[in-house]
Fold each of these.
Amino acid sequence: MPFRRCFLCPVIAAMLTASCAKEVHRTEDGGRLRVVCTTGMIADAAANVGGDRVAVTALMGEGVDPHLYKASTGDMQRLSTADLILYNGLHLEGRMADQFERLAKKRPTAAVTDTIDEERLRTLPGTDAHDPHVWFDVSLWMKAVERMRDALIQVDAAGKEAYTKNAAEYLARLDELHTETRDRIAGIPRESRVLITAHDAFGYFGRAYDIEVMGLQGISTESEPSLKDVNVLVDRIVERKVKAVFVESSVAPKNIEALVEGCRARGHEVRIGGQLFSDAMGRAGTPEGTYIGMVRHNVRTIVEALK
């Protein structure tokens, strides 16, 4: 199935407006809005913006790959009774696209990336489609947070003041995180500033924070690297004398381990520098179980391995 730029956006925008013509009655979950999100990153942002006016559920938890995710019967029940559905878009949740199209006819539904300026999105080579991993550029994720704020206001106008205040506070923290991330990555010597991961999820990170990024698999983990792909990347690692490569929490480590073995066979020792959180956050209740904590963990792991 080809990637495409949030093909549901016009439909969803219309449905969201129509669905929100009458404000949602806040009677369930202790008077809180039921907000159902696909990924943990979206759920964390929605909880920060919504505060005590919302009850947030994330369908995809720790270690879950959204590219391959299929909604369960329980998921569909949660989605069908939600006051607001928030998903990433840009084909991240590729296997759920049909469900969102149907749900948008009945429930307020929004892709959090649908108001990001298209010029700021990475276009995939040879296509007119876009990379969905926008959360790796914190400044872009701030645009997604603003979209969530506006979606909440549309379904709960009475909460506008609270949502606006909460969003402003959270956006200020993200702005600090963006600067912190840029400064820490800049501390890695330029010749060592090479990030090699299991799949091509860190392109926005590389562009925003000036680090070269190479992924063994493509944008989606549905693609499998060939032996040729592995050998080409081994050649580049050996040539560049890269010191470390990284596994991802939501992707099996076998392909990165194959890179390490391939380099060893060529006489170059490269180590696994640690585990990065890419398409899913860490365990709930830990720092890495929040968006800000996840970004800081990734930056710390990268800097310690490459500096």
Amino acid sequence: MKLGQERDAKMEFQDYYKVLGVNRDAKTDDIKKQYRRLARKYHPDVSKEANAEEKFKQVKEAYEVLKDPEKRKAYDQFGSQWKQGQGFEPPPNWEYQPQGGRGHTVYSEDINPGEFSDFFESIFGQRTHRQQAHFKRKGEDQHAKIAITLEEAYRGTQRSLTLREPEIDPKTHQVTYKTRTLNVKIPAGVTQGQQIRLAGQGSPGIGGGSRGDLYLEIELLPHLLFTVENRDIYLTLPIAPWEAALGAEIETPTLGGSVKLKIPPDSQSGKKLRLKGRGLPGTPSGDQYVLLNIYIPVPKTDKQKELYQQMEKEMNFDPRQELLRGVHHG
């Protein structure tokens, strides 16, 4: 594809690391050694391999990119988004303009511009040896998960994150990794799956470009008592039979502390009571729903068994009456 032509169709993404058979964090010296080995293997003048000439061109093109810190960094920006075999198309208005000032050479002396693939040209463009340019690109956005408790989601909290990011040594041109610590404030009322955007805390830009953003996805840890749905909190509350029958006022836990909850008389298991505004804070705040669960005490003495026998005689209660009536009328 020549310079200036419209690229109407997506082309196949080229995995230069796979072409050379090196890892993505390979050092420049290792890349150079591997290139020399493959260049000897596929050189058209001596190689007996099938498609040696085409493979030789692929190897030279891959080396042209990975040996150069600027081009390698630009290529890695795309490499995290596409894989070999997928359709590739640079972002609109993309233009590769590497640093180097006057006299900067884009192509190696032993490669003619016409030998490059459309994929290469779509990123780096065909330029003459005399052309100069300046490359600048915003860094990639990064994504990470951060796990917090329900109590932390309710009150808000802080976290100290350690981030690991690649950089190219300007002297040795080796890819190294550095760590940096970031203190993050998590506001009260965050929910499961919510993303917090930290502007300018993503990957560094290229050629002086601004950093990308860091997106933290909230993951709420399981709780011993509560479950959560959006901003609403759910609690299953055990109660005694007499509390359900006669009504009671029971100390009930919430994320904001214990409150007195009135149990209405004649309550049954599964009854749902609402504590307005006792869920996760927000606009509006969530609620807490309390599900009643009646626990039957086990009689352990003769006197306790007599109490159950007395209830059987006095109350004349059949819990299956409606069930049997439905069968007969079905």
Amino acid sequence: MSQGLDSTATVSPKSPVPGHVPPNLVVDFDAMNPLLGDERYHDAYARMSGPEVPDIFWSPYNGGHWVVRRDNILAEAFAAFENFTSANGMTVPRSADTRPKLPPVETDPPMQGVYRKLFSSAFTVPALKAREDSVRALAVSLIEGFQARGRCEFVREFAQHLPMRVFLGMVDLPDDDRLYLISLADSQVSSGTTKSKEEMLGKLMGYVGQKLAERAKNPGDDLLSKIATAEIEGRPITPFEAMSVGSLLLIGGLDTVASMMGHIMHFLAGSETHRRQLLQSPIIIRDAAEEFLRRFSLTNPARSAVRDLEFHGVHVKQGDMILLATPFGAVDPSKYDNPLAIDFARKSTTKTVFGAGPHVCPGSMLARMELRVLLEEWLPRIPDFAIDPDDRPRIRTGINGSFEHLPLVWTPK
């Protein structure tokens, strides 16, 4: 059965190559729209992982930028905020210079850490353990809601429910707003024009700003209330700071885990061997989740150079954008033997799945718990499933590579 993908993306126009970039470092690769033909998402990155491609190369797409394709160099660049700043935006093409910087993602230490403290308590081990029973109950309810039907559209019927509803509960926002918020969050991580992204970000911040104003007047125990009533270095948080922190939390909470779930279920639909391993030895699910996280790393954040510098033999000029594409770390053959293979016995040592350094994703432990719950609750109920042979999956590329349509079928018990 074919598991080829349809993609809605179009290749970006090329930009002139700056004079300081040697021709031998220019590579024809658009990380926001990387797929050729029937490729799966990570196949596109594996295609560029051979020795003929420089470890750091220049892509002429999305305004032109450097791309890092080695896991160890990715980890180093993520951590080196003194060389590669987030203040000029974390996407390519770079954000407009006229737009105010959005904390915490567009700030560097030490202020970045000050903003992160506003929500870090929600992602501690005790806080997440307290939520696990409700996450598991929700997963079971969703699965049993379509189990007897013998089919589901996984993205719409599960992936856009479980992580989103968990996060909306943390910020006390109504589930009725879920699809609207998903559309706004998706616009920030899919390929699209800078103008359209800015317009949709404005709508998201407007929504969040209204909720924050309500919480400031009548705070509760939720995460948005904590942000609305917070202090920053002894002064009240400003409305813009609160809107920024709240909006960026929503973007992170409403997309990345759902995207990862899509890749995992697409893979398992085509691998009875791996499904059997997990069913027969549930004790390996925790290790399996780590291997899935490694194999399906999917984010493409960016930084910009603070100054002219030599970085692993490449002359990077001040202001150059550098893309830290975590899918390259996932398929790095210098890091992993047979990197495209899924091996539950593999000990993943990557430090770049959720970014690294000061901007490492605060929700990484929540993501791990949700992925583990998916595997533990789905497989005993629906052990054998496949891609609908009459309905091709569809993927969306951009800052994240995400399934937007994943039709699964099985024989009901």
Amino acid sequence: MVDRQLRRRGIVDERVLAAMAEVPRELFVPPAFAARAYDDAALPIGHGQTISQPYMVALMCELLRLHGDETVLDVGTGSGYAAAVLARVARWVVSIERVPELAAQAEDALAAAGVGNAIVVVGDGSTGGPGHAPYDAIAVAAASPVVPDGLVRRLAPGGRLVIPVGSRQDQSLALVERQGDEIAVRRTVACRFVPLLGAGAFEGGD
């Protein structure tokens, strides 16, 4: 996976590549998909959600430029896989999931993977969730029609946020950087994520 899906597609951050190699992805997919755990594709995990494509997880981590001493917010815990990877390259990860059943499953998977520097909370990730802010970095694994103000406000000075932005069908991965009161947004690659539901993004079934 690391050589064929990541290095060949331009991922160069060695810390991210090492994290992707170390995290046992099969722990974060349903048993029926264990044989496909390392496929270059998103896979269903129930409740209408997916575990993201490995390349997208690696790209988002790389764009955040983590050095190991950061506190990171992971929005859309899902299976917990991205939180496990982020925990390898950051000091502390707070992961927020709106579906309690997925949050519980992710906690079990993180424990099985030996991740001790990440917690999972249940809440509305589009608003940034309760406590713990400001964050040095925020990774959002669901698409929003706009960059949610609630997440931008939770960025520490110099912080970076990656989030898919667009419609439910067509999106691009946005990199948001905060320097003082200035916010810079840069679009990167085209992508396709499940919608981010909540007060700061797509409302309910809209």
